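S1.2 Input.
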Amino acid sequence: MKNEMAADVAVFELDAGWVCLDFANTLSSSSGEHLNTYADLVDFAAQSNLLTPDDAAWLRAEGERDQRRAEGVLVRARRVRAAIYAIFAALADGRAATDSDLATLNIELAATLQHARVLATPGEGPHYRWGFVGRNMDAPLWGISRSAADLLVAEEQRARVRQCGGQTCNWLFLDTTKNRSRQWCSMQSCGNRQKARRHYRRVRSRRDPEPA
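S1.3 Output.
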């Protein structure tokens, strides 16, 4: 989910198809925790286009200056991540989300909406979009909680949430295929591994047939 680059900048694999699902995948059953620091949270939000480069740089510096507050935001991030994962894993399994997980998300969403604004988009003709104002240390969470709320109320997209079919993978993703046949979070990783396993089993079965 995360690789390391120069200057300790975390690089995340953002292929789930929806920001909140990418965020849920930052805790992996196979590779562990990827939000180890507040700076990791900022890196995720910046790479998901939830923060401008200037705001991300300011937040990293502020996190270094006020480490106690940064740690508090990181704790909140992990808490809402657990709720987001539980909500969408349940939906992928055909179950309803629990009231407690929805309450956790709604608490974060209430804090987010204080900063939400309708903003004009530069360009020809009137164009508007949702955005956020302010440079608070919890700014990386605003777009994440809004993303989760948007996916929950979007019936068509919500019905396409899936959980990876890989043996050791628990990642979530949005299945955008026409026939809704996507099985893995990534063809390059889990998909290829599953194909290799099936090929190995077929070869072995031909080589070592069952005893009579």
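S1.4 Remarks. The radius of gyration is 20 Å.
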